[in-house]
Write a structure and sequence with these properties.
Blueprint: E1 4-7, H1 13-21, E2 26-30, H2 41-48, E3 56-61, H3 66-73, E4 80-83, H4 89-99, E5 102-109, H5 118-124, E6 127-132, E7 163-165, H6 174-181, E8 185-188, E9 193-195, E10 198-199, H7 201-220
Parallel strand pairs: 1-2, 1-8, 2-3, 3-4, 4-5, 5-6, 6-7, 7-8
Antiparallel strand pairs: 9-10
Bound molecules: ligand LGQLAAA5.
Pathway: Amino-acid biosynthesis; L-tryptophan biosynthesis; L-tryptophan from chorismate: step 3/5
InterPro entries: Aldolase_TIM, PRAI_dom, RibuloseP-bd_barrel, TrpF_fam
Family: Belongs to the TrpF family.
């Protein structure tokens, strides 16, 4: 098993370099102004300048207009557009067609009902990401909340596209998550931070080392 790791919500050059050197497969940059991790396109472009081609650059959007996406793409060489709002499968397909990029659709999960539209999203998107539903507080952003959901809901899932488990992951709970869900990829933001928006070098290294350990364990078994 190779476990893909996506580190999301990057804002600092040092953290970008560290994530690349420690084996992250994807790096995520937030283009959603209400988030504490949001970046302007020019700031993100600077952070992306030296990322090697084998590491995917993911732009995270929430119900974006075409114009919002185009404004970011004018400066940022994204590989993947992550849609983390209430986008329908038709909208997902439209974004993929217009941008020519891969699209990762985030599905926010609380109960089995939240997986009802999964097959339509799988058909429309190139990748799927499962995250916890945001708190019902009206001020909450739809992701990056450090909240996990009931991972058992994803057990025995068969999806013929790459997919990621996200939501409240950290070094301590990664082994259990991987054992229960066996995801091809995992995605983390809060769990490798000192405080919202600031990545913690020690937590970042520990998370990526744990992901490598779990992948090696799986290979050896
Ligand atoms: O991180 C954010 O601020 C954010 C804002 C809006 C949409 C998505 C966002 N983040 C995504 O949420 C997952 C899970 O985060 P966490 O590990 O639970 O903190 C994160 O990896 C991003 O893909």
């Amino acid at each position: 098993m190779s476990l893909m790791v996506k580190i999301c919500g990057l804002r600092e050059q040092m953290a970008v370099e560290q994530a690349v050197n420690a084996g992250a497969r994807y790096l995520g940059f937030i283009f959603y102004p209400p988030s504490v991790r949001a970046l302007r396109p020019d700031e993100a472009a600077t952070l992306m300048a030296d990322i090697p081609d084998n590491v995917g650059k993911v732009g995270v959007f929430v119900d974006p207009s075409d114009r919002e996406i185009e404004t970011v793409l004018a400066l940022c060489p994204l590989d993947v557009i992550q849609l983390h709002g209430r986008e329908t499968p038709d909208r997902v397909a439209q974004v993929a067609l217009r941008s020519g990029l891969q699209v990762m659709k985030a599905i926010q999960v609380e109960t089995a009902d939240d997986l009802g539209a999964l097959s339509a999203h799988v058909a429309a998107a190139d990748m799927i990401l499962f995250d916890a539903k945001a708190p019902r507080d009206g001020a909450a952003v739809p992701g990056g909340n450090g909240l996990a959901f009931d991972w058992q809901l994803l057990q025995n899932l068969t999806i013929d596209k790459p997919w990621f488990l996200a939501g409240g992951l950290n070094k301590e709970n990664l082994a259990l998550a991987v054992e229960l869900v066996d995801p091809p990829g995992v995605d983390v933001s809060s769990g490798v931070e000192r405080w919202p928006g600031a990545k913690d070098p020690a937590k970042l290294d520990a998370f990526l080392a744990e992901a490598r350990r779990l992948a090696d364990l799986h290979k050896a078994s």
